[in-house]
Amino acid sequence: MIKILYILEATSGGTQKHVIDLAKKIDKSEFQIDIVYSTNRNKNFVQESSGIFNKMFGLPITRSGSPSDIVNILKIRKIIKENNYDIVHCHSTKAGFVGRLATFISRHPNVIYSPHGFMFCDTRIKMRRLLYLYLEKYLGYLTNKLVAVSGSERDLALQHNIVPNNKIVTLYNSIDPSDFDDFNYVNKVPDKLLQNNSEIILGTVGRLYYQKDPITLIKSFKIINNKFPNTKLIIVGDGPLEDVCRQLINELNLQDRIELAGYQKNSKAYYKIFDIFLLSSHYEGLPYALLEAMIMGIPSVGTDVVGIKDLIVHGETGYLAKEEDHVGFAKAVISLLENPALLSAFSENAKRRTKANYNFNDGIKEYEEFYTSQTLRTA
Amino acid sequence: MKRTKILHIITSLGIGGAENLLLSYLKNLDKKKYSFYVCCLRDKPDDLNIEISNYAQIINLKMKSKFNPIVIFHLLKVIKEIQPEIIHTHLFQPRIYTTFAHLLYRRGVLITHKHSIVNPRKHHIFMLLEIATILFNKKVIAISESVKQSLCKYEFIPNSKIFVLTNSIDYLKFNEVFRHRTYPLDKSIVIGTVSRVERVKGINYLLIAMKIILKKYPYSKLEIVGEGSELDELKLLSKKLGISNSVIFFGKLANPIPNYGRMDVFVLPSLLEGFGLVLLEAMAAGIPIVATNVHGIKEVVIDGKSGILIPPKNPEAIAKAVTRIIEDPQIHKDLVEEGFNRARLFDIQEHLLKLENLYNILLGVESYQ
């Protein structure tokens, strides 16, 4: 029996899905997973993950740095000391910070870290970017293995010398195709272009904050909508930029063309009405939202950034545009709408590619092997 | 001026007709005149908890089971503490428990809100209990004429005790999503429904009808907004029928208004309906309606004018009515036009005036007219 402790702050979105999926499907007879989670973010987390974890420890870990982290680190240290874990696995930046310091002061020998998107990709403030970069570098010394969830994330880590080459493992995020087999994408865009009342629905799913860059998306939609007036944009997700987005929508006079659907538990339903999936992020780990869209066969347009460029093959499963370039992004979508027959081909390719490369059954085996090899190393 | 204290008692704060109505009362009634307290018996579901807490003080009794007479004493304590001028109860359980509590501690005027028609097949004991408790209430508010009639017929409540306050909607909010259509309509249409997913709502018949519609319009979609005990069963049924590609279950939505904006035809296949508020919402959003000719709905929809009524449990009739609306632009136009006029009659402002009037009468500010 291998005892693993997960540390998780981001109890919503892709990271949460990743952690819950892993813990749910992993072989319970061999692995026993406990979790330290943040009670601050998602109030329903305990309910959503009931029966999945062996023990759950709720701590008030905040999203950004705060003095309370010292208390949390000491508490996690106590948990690690008391329960004698084989592996401590930290998910995303904040949990990586408190988790790795806690393992350091408890002298735990085996700590794994999955960044799920590096915070230093946020280039708005140079000082902060350097702070995150150096934090990652120094904490890299305390890390036994860093799990990159995509090839481009691994390259990025190596490029910035976060950890040496032998400390990086690449384990792709993966999803279970059987969860999505009740839906087949049908390319209705050619018909919708001929008709007046039908709306071509462009959609995205993601939290409204800097990383996902909804502003660029809305700006580019203005250009798309000028050319194809019967397009509509649905944005599923909430977040700190909601008011800014609303204001921008009002300024561009797109109130009845853009629907801010807010946070939805059942976001899968929305995928079924999307004709094209859009993702305009600044950086990603390996985005589940895009992965889900692709496995359902929805053609996609994304930005050419870490995480997304792994999934979208330009001209094969969708189009890539430059980061923060709303004109280029709009052009990509417009060229798709001008050649709607392409959508059917893209749909097929996307489905085939994700099913082959990001299949959950393979993914979970890789994780099991990885954990086992980690414990053998220290034993 | 001293504010009038009003205590609303309700089963839980999940999303539903009664809960939404309560929320619109709290939102729209003058806060300078009234101060609100909401007491809910059960903890879960609590979707509206945050929103309601903006307008009223919430007291949660965290009841575990349905049958728990001890709650009466908790309620008694709440009433003693708050000393409300008016106690307004919604739904069955709060009605029963509060009436007993009020009998023990008579403070304030007790009124109750009946949100559904009396089901004559309900057990006699429940009927008797309800009759007895309603008689101890000062007034019972019925949400429609048919609720009033059913109260008179099955529970022998005297006419004078019943106050009809027809359910209403925030017309302007729904009217915002209306979009102008050009005729003839497209082949890729969206058929929608908004309701709890329960057996009495008859959604399984809609799924069968969808199969028929899909034969003629393979690109059409069915969007179902709502949650309930039948959800998994219906998902399975749609798979069995081979139409899962075209049927989308959205689950419960906090704000379904944007979804109305997408629908081309609204179908309500209910077998039993108190009033069918969603029909008015659909009308206000400019969506033509197909609904069953059961009691509550008949009051809202005039057959052939503001909607097409069909017999319940009849998928072929649903499919036929829907195709008729799609194919005949004239009918479509007329239904939308008439729907607007009809929905405007049920605007919330009128409703609130009447309710305030009732409160005033009960408080003795105004005399009976």
Textual characterization of the structure:
The complex is a heterodimer of chains A (379) and B (369). With 379 residues, chain A is an alpha/beta fold. Chain A has two domains: 192 residues, Rossmann fold, CATH 3.40.50; 181 residues, Rossmann fold. Chain A has 15 helices and 13 strands. In chain A, strand 8, helix 8 and strand 9 form a beta-alpha-beta unit. In chain A, helix 3 packs across helix 4 and helix 8 crosses helix 13. Chain A is globular, with a radius of gyration of 21 Å. Chain B is an alpha/beta fold. Chain B has two domains: 182 residues, Glycogen Phosphorylase B (Rossmann fold), CATH 3.40.50.2000; 175 residues, Glycogen Phosphorylase B (Rossmann fold), CATH 3.40.50.2000. Helix content of chain B is 44%, strand content 18%. Chain B contains 15 helices and 13 strands. The model of chain B has no long low-confidence stretch (mean pLDDT 88).
Q: What descriptive keywords fit this protein?
A:
heterodimer; A: 379 residues; alpha/beta; Rossmann fold; 2 domains; 6-stranded parallel beta sheet; 13 strands; globular; B: 369 residues; 15 helices; elongated
Brief write-up:
The complex is a heterodimer of chains A (379) and B (369). With 379 residues, chain A is an alpha/beta fold.
- The pLDDT mean of chain A sits at 90
Query: Sheet bearing the most strands of chain A, described?
Result: 7 strands, parallel
CATH third-tier fold name of the largest domain in chain A:
Rossmann fold
The whole-number mean of residue pLDDT values of chain B reads: 88
> What would CATH call the class of the largest domain in chain A?
Alpha Beta
CATH architecture of the largest domain in chain B: 3-Layer(aba) Sandwich
Order of helices and strands of chain B: EHEHEHEHEHEHEHEHEHEHEHEHEHHH
Q: What is the helix fraction of residues of chain A, given as a range?
A: 40-55%
Identify the CATH homologous superfamily of the largest domain in chain A.
Answer: Glycogen Phosphorylase B
Structural class based on helices, strands and sheet pairing of chain A: alpha/beta
Strand composition percent of chain A:
15-25%
What is the overall silhouette of chain A? globular
Major sheet description of chain B: 7 strands, parallel
- The count of DSSP E runs of length 2 or more, i.e. the number of strands of chain B, is 13
For the record, give the distance between the C-alpha atoms at the N and C termini of chain B, rounded to a whole number.
Answer: 25 Å
